[in-house]
Every structure is written in structure tokens, then in C-alpha cells.
Design brief:
Blueprint: E1 22-23, H1 39-47, E2 60-67, H2 74-84, E3 88-92, H3 94-99, H4 101-109, E4 113-116, H5 129-146, E5 154-155, E6 161-162, H6 164-172, E7 176-177, H7 195-205, E8 211-215, H8 219-234, E9 238-239, H9 242-253
Parallel strand pairs: 2-3, 2-8, 2-9, 3-4, 5-7
Antiparallel strand pairs: 1-6
Organism: Bacillus lumedeiriae
Domain NodB homology: 59-240
Keywords: Signal
Length: 254
């Protein structure tokens, strides 16, 4: 008699990826100590290659801007960056690409990174997989048509809202989520408070490895930026690009 052979196949349940919306928030930096999002968010971002600050051991800063629409101050900001030889990343929407193409071209020409802020600026946790891909693809395609930047690596989610699902999908589409460790209320164009307001908010939150989020619609930011950069350089800080950050991370993980 032949012994009967039985083969058992075990199917392990696939854990669903959460689409619970996370509204980015953190404990603000003070006295040169880094801002903190907490262990749970740190772990989630790290799992998906996302980041919001650099090393606490280096006095390096990463300057980023969100560009939803043009309000007449981006050219001045670009002038400052060019004069001070500071790299930046500009996260643009579809509206910005269509309404301010010459400024987008200038950003690229002067060596800045253009990042994805989605086409219509929706809450990405509330759109379908197909719609999310379309939102990102349209920005990438239009940027490539306007400039010499044919690839797009960085994503800043509209309104700072994301989920495990959107982190995963963005990474699959070739994007790195870039959040921030320094920001303040600067986007109300009818409630600008003068350059000192912007300057003070930046300087009291500054810390090694800071990723600054500023909005280019702010007159306060445009007027404060020259003094901010000069004074931070005097404090021993230097400005690097997001690409520099990624190179460092690759060296660390190698």
C-alpha cells in the first residue's frame, strides 16, 4: 500500500492598508531643539521613506515653498535665493503651472527642485486610487513640458493630510513624501502682519535639520527672507537641497 500524501496550503490574511486620514502636526521646535512628531508618526514615515527633518547633528536647513497660486511675490523670493545662493524646493499645483509657467521655468532654470502638490489640491485620502495617480501624473507631465525637469521625486500632500494608503501609493509612483518641521500661519493674504512676524516665527523655531515650509503668497515671507537667510548663515547654518538630504540617507543606509 502506498501512503497517502497530503499537502496543505495555508493562506495568510493580507492586512488592509489603513486610509485613516492623518493631519500633520508636531511639537514645535524651541531653543534650537528639534521639532518632534512622536514615535508613532516617525515610524510610519520611516517605513515609507518619508521625512520631515534632517539630522540634529548638522546645522543644515532645507527651504521649501508651497505654491498653490501666484500672488506677486515669488519673483522676489527667487531673486533672494539667487543672490544668497540658496537652493529650494517649490511644491506646485496644476493651477500654478497653468497660471505662472514663466516662474516655474525660472525655478528650474535657477537650479531649484519642483515638487508635486497635486493638480487640484484635494485631500488625497478622499480620492480613489485612480484619481490619486491622475492628480500626481498631471503635475509631473505639465512640469516636464514646461521645464527640463523630466522626473519628479517629491510630494507634499495638500493640506498636510495623508494616510498609510497614500504614503504607500505615492512611494509606488516614485515619490517621497516631504513634510516639515517648521511652519506657521503665513498664508492669509488679507492678514499679513509685516516682515518681523515672519522673521520672528522662523527664528524662534529654527533648529538643526529643519525643513522649513513657507508659502510664496505671503508678502511677509518675501520681505523677511533676505534677513532670515543672512542671519541664519551668521549662526553657522547652511542651506542644502532635498536631493542632498536623500544622498545622505542613502550613504547612511548603505
Amino acid at each position: 500500500m502506498f501512503a497517502a500524501l497530503f499537502f496543505f496550503s495555508f493562506t495568510y490574511p493580507v492586512m488592509a492598508v489603513s486610509n485613516q486620514a492623518i493631519h500633520w502636526g508636531l511639537k514645535k521646535a524651541s531653543n534650537g531643539q528639534q521639532a518632534e512628531a512622536g514615535p508613532k508618526l516617525d515610524k510610519l514615515l520611516d517605513e515609507h521613506g518619508a521625512f520631515y527633518k534632517g539630522s540634529a547633528k548638522e546645522k543644515v536647513l532645507y527651504l521649501t515653498f508651497d505654491n498653490g497660486y501666484e500672488n506677486g511675490y515669488t519673483a522676489s523670493i527667487l531673486d533672494t535665493l539667487k543672490k544668497e545662493k540658496v537652493p529650494a524646493a517649490f511644491f506646485v499645483t496644476g493651477h500654478y503651472l497653468e497660471s505662472a509657467p514663466d516662474l516655474v521655468k525660472r525655478m528650474n532654470k535657477e537650479g531649484h527642485i519642483i515638487g508635486n502638490h497635486s493638480w487640484h489640491h484635494p485631500d488625497l485620502t478622499q480620492v480613489s486610487d485612480e484619481k490619486l495617480k491622475e492628480e500626481l501624473a498631471r503635475v509631473k507631465k505639465e512640469t516636464a513640458q514646461l521645464t527640463k525637469q523630466k522626473d519628479m521625486k517629491y510630494l507634499r500632500p495638500p493640506r498636510g493630510i495623508f494616510s498609510e494608503r497614500t504614503l504607500k501609493m505615492a512611494k509606488e509612483e516614485g515619490y517621497t513624501h516631504v513634510m516639515w518641521s517648521l511652519a506657521f500661519v503665513d498664508w492669509y493674504t488679507n492678514n499679513q502682519k509685516g516682515w518681523q512676524y515672519s522673521y520672528d516665527n522662523i527664528m524662534k523655531q529654527i533648529h538643526p535639520g529643519a525643513i522649513l515650509l513657507l508659502h510664496t503668497v505671503s508678502k511677509d515671507n518675501a520681505e523677511a527672507l533676505p534677513k532670515v537667510i543672512k542671519d541664519l548663515k551668521k549662526q553657522g547654518y547652511r542651506f542644502e537641497s532635498l536631493d542632498d538630504y536623500r544622498k545622505k540617507q542613502k550613504r547612511i543606509s548603505a
